[in-house]
Design a protein that fits this description.
about 220 residues, alpha+beta, 2 domains, 3-stranded antiparallel sheet, two-stranded antiparallel sheet, 6 helices, 5 strands, about 30% helix, about 10% strand
Length: about 220
C-alpha cells in the first residue's frame, strides 16, 4: 500500500498506528496530545475511522478508542486548501479581529478563519475568490479560536454521523429547524446547518435575545 501521508509527519505516524485496523487508545497509543484534528484530516482523505469509548488496560480507565476501517480510502477525498493570505487579512479586517463565540477582540495569530459550512459535509473541493464581496465573505466565514474550532468540529462530525445537531453549553435552541438534521436536505446541503449555533453564533445569539425580549 502506498502511504498517503509524508513520512515522519504526525499524520504519517498516526496512520501507521491505525493501519493494523485494530482499536487504539487515544490517550496513550495515538501520537500527539490532541489527535482529533489529525483524525479529521485523515477522514478528509477518504478514510473511514470508527470511534468508541472503552476500558483501556494500560490507562486503567475508559478512554476514546479509534479504529481504521480500511487501509484504502472508501470515500472521495476533498482537500481543504489553505486560505490565501490576502483573503485571510480581508476576513480579519472585516470582523475587526473579533472572535465569533466570545465576541472578544484578539490578536490575529490567536484566530482561525472557519468555514461556517463544515468540511465534514463537503462534496467537492473548495475554491477561493480573494475578491469576493463582503456579503459572500460574511456568509462563508467566521473567526474562531483553535479550541472553539475543534469544539465545533466535534459537534459537526457527530451531526454528520447521527443527525443530531449540536448545541451550545446545553442550550437546546435553534433559530431555524430542530434538534435533528432535516431529512429534506442531503448531507452536503448547507441549508441543513442553518439555525445551529455553530453555523452562525451571531444570528443564533441575536435570535435568542429577540425571543427573550418579546416575553
Amino acid at each position: 500500500m502506498k502511504h498517503p501521508f509524508k513520512e515522519g509527519t504526525k499524520l504519517s505516524k498516526l496512520f501507521t498506528t491505525l493501519s493494523d485496523m485494530e482499536w487504539h487508545c487515544g490517550k496513550h497509543e495515538l501520537p500527539g496530545t490532541q489527535p482529533a484534528k489529525a483524525i479529521q484530516i485523515i477522514k478528509q482523505h477518504g478514510f473511514k475511522i470508527d470511534k468508541k469509548t472503552m476500558y483501556c488496560n494500560i490507562c486503567k480507565e475508559r478512554t476514546v478508542h479509534r479504529q481504521l476501517l480500511s487501509i484504502e480510502p472508501e470515500m472521495p477525498s476533498y482537500v481543504r486548501l489553505q486560505i490565501p493570505a490576502q483573503l485571510r487579512k480581508r476576513i480579519l479586517r472585516f470582523y475587526k479581529n473579533t472572535e465569533a463565540i466570545t465576541l472578544r477582540k484578539m490578536v490575529p495569530n490567536q484566530l482561525e478563519v472557519d468555514h461556517r459550512f463544515p468540511q465534514v459535509r463537503w462534496s467537492c473541493d473548495e475554491h477561493y475568490d480573494t475578491n469576493m464581496s463582503e456579503e459572500v465573505l460574511q456568509r462563508k466565514f467566521q473567526l474562531l479560536t483553535r479550541q472553539h474550532n475543534l469544539w465545533k468540529s466535534r459537534y459537526c462530525e457527530r451531526c454528520k454521523e447521527t443527525g443530531e445537531r449540536g448545541t451550545f453549553i446545553g442550550i437546546d435552541y435553534f433559530y431555524k429547524g430542530g434538534e435533528v438534521w432535516d431529512e429534506e436536505y442531503q448531507d452536503d446541503d448547507e441549508r441543513g446547518c442553518i439555525g445551529c449555533f455553530w453555523y452562525d453564533p451571531e444570528t443564533w445569539r441575536n435570535s435568542l435575545n429577540e425571543e427573550l425580549r418579546s416575553k
